[in-house]
Amino acid sequence: MIPSARRPQRGRTAIAAPPGTADPESTTQLRTDARRNLEQVLRAAREVFGELGYDAPMEEIARRAGVGVGTIYRRFSGKESLVQRIMITETARLTGEAVAALAEEPDAWAALNRYLRRAVASGAGRLFPALSGRVPVTEEMRDGRTALNEAVCLLVDRAKDEGYLRDDVSDADISLLLSCLLPPPGLPKAQRLTVAARYLEVVLDGLRADRPSPLPGRPFTQDELDTLFLRGGPR
Question: Which parts of this chain does the entry mark as a DNA-binding region (predicted)?
Fold first, then answer.
């Protein structure tokens, strides 16, 4: 937006703005546009990386975001830094979902159900395996993962304490379930979400404490989960 010229009042000398001084309204608009572009890029990157994996072209992200590729590279130095930001943002979002579910639902089972349903609907289960191990892990990424682990652990412990969740399931099992609910990538997005939601209902039924059949093997551990999500898979 080009600010309109201001006429000097009679009897007064017009004072020109110092060189390089931005019009406040114009600057605010630029900040708003930049923030909107960033949100569009992050949203598109989540979808593209979740569907196509780390090797997805940046041009596809730009196309879905409705911006030029140059817009992405002005904000991120490359695909690596974009993926790191996606991992940090999504981990924080899942942590917020877990904390809010515990605070707002009437019991821990309802909270666990809500958390898993929203996490599955967001496509997080497909996103994390697609990106894990492809970029250096920053301290912010590790801190975010720790916060998410703690939030999910609290959900699981309370669901067990209240007698809803079976004892032979760990908090790491719950997190890994999100990555196991992966319908074939060739399906349309709406159908993938529907299939994942159907599978989740079967899984939730099997998580209840009143299910008599014991699970084979041992529960997954947080160390194993961190190996998958932070260090690129089992050694």
Answer: 57-76
